[in-house]
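retry 2 of 3: previous attempt timed out while embedding S-adenosylmethionine. Reduced batch size to 1 and resubmitted. Inputs unchanged:
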Amino acid sequence: MSEFVGAPKITSLADLFAVAYQIEIDAVARYKLLAGQMETHNNPELVAVFNDLARAEGIHAEEIRRQARRRLALLNDLLNQSSLRALALKGGERVLDVGAGLGQLTRAIARAVGPAGRVLGIERSAEQIAEARRLARADGEERLLEMRQGDVLELDLAAGEWGSFDVAHARFILEHVPDPLRVVRAMVRAVRVGGRIVIEDDDHDVLRLWPEPAGLMELWRAYIRSYEQNGNDPYVGRRLVALLHAAGALPTRNAWLFFGGCAGDGRIDLFVRNLVDLLEGAREAILAAGPVDRARFDAAIAATRAWGERPDAAFWFARCWAEGVRTGP
Ligand SMILES: C[S@@+](CC[C@H](N)C(=O)[O-])C[C@H]1O[C@@H](n2cnc3c(N)ncnc32)[C@H](O)[C@@H]1O
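retry 2 succeeded.
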């Protein structure tokens, strides 16, 4: 085992396993490593066993990836249906979708406005745009997706595009920018007089799980603080109407779009896994925001996962939703 710097001398198979499991690599790599070691120990039987295990883990990982993709698609459907209902689009409308991400909602909007309409998605990340195009292609909907790379803080439309859209829409973008008003002002300028500006965003204060999983809310508060440390507003949802007003639009509607459920509705797993993925994805930022340490982080995640199996689990979240109208030039 001289390949492992600082590794103890291996005198038995148990030692070999102990060392292999201390190494922070994925299971496929670990089994390949063990197979390689068995080769040097001239043990063809164990080489075959570890190679089989590596293959099995590989298949398992692909299965996990497949399940994750299905879960994301379900989540998107769930979110998109309520967004579309609230948007109440008419055929032929021209829509600007700012911070369009992977473009699933952008495409759903394009389906809603039909071939006489137009949807333009603005997205900063070239990777997101490439993935959005790949997803659209996989669904045979490439022609529905018009994406342009751009920064919504410096919205750069062509001269003839300003004031031409019927609707400007943004979902989950204001929480990621340091100056949300700048974005809303640009959205107001982008629509025609009488056009609508529709914004959906989070107010992270509204998460409720009951009975509360041990340690989860402490973790959630640290997650919220990580937004603030990035210079973004984790409570921007409560400011949507105020932002529309400050940007010169007339706020006309204000609502919550519910996102939650309970044990027995067949979807609680989706909400729990989404929450866990979200927190796991922000692990380092949360730990940096303090005061949660790694052990408390892991314990709260485990408690939340276990909570998802309870027959009395109830989950509430909602995003803020507001609409305004451009009243003048
Ligand atoms: C959470 S995603 C939301 C995507 C989509 N609106 C949805 O609801 O599914 C936020 C997206 O905004 C993009 N974004 C963040 N800051 C941006 C900026 N300044 N200009 C353009 N896009 C930005 C990110 O790359 C990301 O794709």
